[in-house]
Design a protein that fits this description.
Elements (H helix, E strand, L loop, with lengths): L1 H10 L1 H12 L15 H28 L2 H19 L7 H33 L5 H33 L17 H11 L2 H13 L4 H6 L4 H12 L7 H10 L7 H30 L1 H4 L14 H34 L1 H21 L1 H7 L1 H16 L2 H7 L1 H4 L5 H27 L4 H21 L11 H5 L33
């Protein structure tokens, strides 16, 4: 539910950003016969400020997740998300600058809380799961992002639809002033943003009831007895602590992040997880943040001047909902079904390659697809979403939660995720500039750039080993063996059958 809330809060802004332009910058397109739009710098701030907060939150909460414990800081993220979701719908003042300023302030803090959920959710899930189904469980956490994106479109569609029914108005072309539908349209975007607080608040009690992960309690705190007691409550079975084995594992896990030993064992792994996540998020967030600009090209929405304000939100939300339901959502759950059969490595390579191929086709044939074959354009666009999620968007979340030792697992996941958000900022402040006006030349450039970006992700994937079928201690070398460092055999990409190493009972879960 944390990840459901994360996705809803991050992507619901795409459904209302054009409405904000109509309401608060009505004269920005004066003389063009089109409704107002957010100026490029303002649009980039509105859609990108939460990503800046997310990047910073990932690093801060990831670090404290290793220093203070996963559970201790887990509830803070939910409270911050709930408070700031409500704050995003408020305004300190009445001018357009005060409204947008308040929105950006609270969305930055909202992103800060969302950032904490990334490393903590992934780390907690990886440390609770067993090695046979660990990939599916971590991927299932991340798959809730797809559900959140669907609900972002659905809630915006329902709220705008209800208000549209009771507040009919002419199109912008017929009457620019009445087409703004004030005050209903102003309530609409505030309601959509505030609704993001409810799933966070609903989950808070259960999140606080979770015990600390046994791996953290045993390997970092050194309390094997408490780890055994905690897991007995979860699994409802009797577990004996093995203090001598825990002491051995702690000794093998003593080196810090900034050390030659970490660089020798996991330096290339960290480079692989950070670069692939960075490159993936350039493409993924470009797709999501700019889809409102691509929808007209695939005939899912019409010209803005032919609609009133709430009608435009409704059709953008409907298009976002359909693309998420048919393209985004299935990819996540196909990954959940196959990740422990195909492995992370193969799924990531396949996803990057197919995304690159489909984006190249859309870029090269953009004019033909836009003018003559809307259906094929929509299919190709949906397939890029499918292979993003049945591919690197899921695996880049899973791998950092498995590759690194317990002492730095949350921090390394946070560094990888923050690298991804840096890619998202490139999308929000860079790629989005090419798509705002919707002209053919710049749309083609954007799609071809994203194709090249995905192909780079394909090649950087070779830095990351396969983790399927191995325990976390075996992967990281915490069992006293070499782990999966640079000296590991190439066969680490494909784990041998019948690998039966087991962690001590206190860490089975």
């Amino acid at each position: 539910m944390g990840f459901f809330t994360d996705a809803y809060d991050l992507f619901c802004i795409s459904t209302v950003s054009k409405l904000l332009g109509r309401l608060y910058y009505p004269y920005s397109n004066a003389g063009s016969g089109k409704p107002g739009t957010l100026p490029v710098p303002v649009n980039n701030m509105v859609t990108g400020v939460a990503l800046v907060g997310t990047l910073m939150g990932q690093l801060v909460f990831g670090y404290f997740g290793d220093k203070l414990g996963r559970k201790r800081v887990y509830g803070i993220t939910l409270v911050l998300m709930a408070v700031c979701a409500i704050g995003s719908g408020l305004s300190f003042g009445t001018t357009h600058r005060s409204v947008i300023g308040t929105l950006c302030f609270f969305r930055f803090l909202l992103g800060f809380g969302i950032g904490g959920d990334y490393p903590l959710s992934a780390t907690i899930m990886s440390e609770y799961a067993n090695k046979k189904t660990r990939g599916a469980f971590i991927a299932a956490v991340f798959a809730m992002q797809g559900v959140g994106i669907i609900f972002a479109g659905l809630v915006s569609m329902v709220v705008s639809g209800i208000l549209l029914r009771y507040n009919p108005a002419p199109s912008y072309r017929e009457d620019p002033r009445l087409s703004a539908q004030l005050p209903a349209a102003d309530y609409m975007w505030r309601i959509v943003l505030m609704i993001g607080a409810f799933p966070a608040l609903a989950t808070f009690y259960w999140r606080m009831q979770m015990p600390e992960t046994a791996r953290y309690t045993a390997l970092i705190d050194g309390n094997a007895k408490q780890a055994s007691n905690d897991m007995q409550k979860v699994l409802e079975i009797t577990i004996e602590d093995e203090a001598d084995k825990v002491a051995k594992f702690r000794a093998a896990n003593a080196y810090p992040l900034l050390s030659k030993e970490f660089a020798r064992r996991h330096g290339l792994h960290l480079l692989g997880t950070t670069t692939t996540w960075f490159l993936l998020d350039i493409a993924f967030y470009s797709q999501n943040l700019t889809q409102k600009d691509i929808f007209p090209a695939i005939n899912l929405t019409g010209p803005a001047e032919t609609m009133n304000a709430l009608r435009e939100v409704f059709v953008i939300s409907r298009a976002m909902f359909l693309v998420a339901l048919l393209g985004t959502f299935p990819g996540y759950w196909v990954t959940v079904a196959l990740i422990d059969k195909m492995g992370r490595y193969l799924i990531q390579l396949l996803g990057f390659f197919m995304m690159s191929l489909f984006m190249l086709l859309m870029g090269v044939k953009y004019e033909y697809l836009k003018d003559q074959n809307h259906f094929l354009f929509a299919v190709l666009y949906a397939l890029t979403f499918f292979f993003a999620n049945f591919g690197p968007n899921s695996t880049t979340f899973v791998l950092p939660a498995e590759l690194f030792p317990t002492r730095v697992r949350s921090t390394c996941h946070a560094i990888s995720a923050a690298s991804g958000k840096a890619g998202a900022l490139v999308a929000a402040f860079g790629v989005q500039r090419l798509t705002l006006k919707g002209d053919v030349k710049h749309m083609k450039e954007a799609l071809i750039i994203l194709s090249v970006t995905n192909m780079l992700g394909f090649f950087f994937t070779f830095l990351v080993p396969e983790t399927m079928g191995r325990s976390l201690e075996e992967i990281s070398g915490e069992d006293g063996n070499a782990g999966m460092g640079p000296s590991a055999d190439v066969s680490s990409r494909f784990p041998p059958p019948n690998t039966e190493w087991q962690p001590p009972p206190s860490m089975h879960a």
